[in-house]
Here is the input.
Amino acid sequence: MDLNEYRDRVVKRSVLSFFIGIITRFPKFLKFKYSSLRLKIRRVNLGENVTILPSSLFMRNVSVGNNTSIARNLIISNNEREVRIGNNVIIGDGVRLIIESHDIDSPGWEHTCPSDPLIIEDYVWICPYSTILPSCKRIGKGAVIGACSVVTKDVGDFEVVGGNPAKAIRIRKTPHTDLVIDALLGNDLVRYIKVWFGK
Here is the structure.
């Protein structure tokens, strides 16, 4: 939802509609707060205004930037490898960040894990059911990963990729700078109150 459209919708509400909006948002707000608390206990570093559904599974060494939205069932299997997710990132349902693997030539099936962190820059959009493999070290600013893609190598700034393995399709013209993603998922209670009282 566009930021201006969101503000217009909120400030036009009557007092009764405003309080009904608070009541309907409150259960989802609690759910997202529970999810954030659970991740902070696991030492996941979360920025401000982060929306993460409780069904997502994080390991250690993960940081998430401000205004980032993560939908259902994100799995990050990173063991010891650091994962840095930037600001204003949108991650869709069922995305997998497979950060470690096994040595297929080893009789002991040892784990292998790149020493470099996986960096997902600001304004990236990772569409549903995409998979990021260990050979990827960086997804550039404003990049888009198409739905169900398998990313095997680094993605450049504003690059749109798709397929298995993911290949460049085109260059994105502009990132999503004025969206209110948390409103779409029902985690906008604080923003909702601030906008209405600031009208």
Observations:
- The mean pLDDT is 89.
